[in-house]
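thought: fold this chain, then report.
action: predict
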Amino acid sequence: MVVSAPSGAGKTTLCKRLLRHDARIEFSVSFTTRPRRPGERDGVDYRFVDRKEFERLRRGGEFVEWASVGENLYGTSVSAVQEASRDGREVLLDLDTQGAASVRKLFPDAVLIFIMPPDRKALEERLEKRATDTPREVARRLALARGEVEKSPGYDYVIVNEDLDTAYRQLRGIVEAERCRTARQKGRLAAILREFVDRRPHFG
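observation:
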């Protein structure tokens, strides 16, 4: 699952809540060159590296996708995603729209979810309220948000986060619905069918 959103739309809060309540989902920790925010932990929220180390990993083919967002770089480990895919594990990726498009190319069955703010004014208020960015940074994030929102029609699902509890219920609903897809249950369904076939009554 890939979750994207403009900065301040509530993506991180929703993802952390989902991971806290659903042990079947694991978080794919991205690499980034951006400074660590208060309370963030290396290897848990992100793998924080400097630009030189990031470029070394990129040249070595370590990233399934990487993107430049403002003045910072972000990248997702190709080996980690491939290993999870082989094992059939459920992995949650927190990526921007550019990264989501790259993942879709490599993993066509990936589920893309976009978290949408109810309107521009609400997004601006949320960015200002969290008080982690300068006014200049808030303005830059709002400018980036337009391009991200314009790409939302390319996602499988869009959740408008006007009320956090409602948005979370919708996110959980998407997860459960995707788990019920026939294509994702082939092994289990085949085993159940075999039981019915093997135990058919014989007459005469």
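thought: worth noting. The CA atoms of residues 148 and 172 lie 23 Å apart.
final: tokens above.
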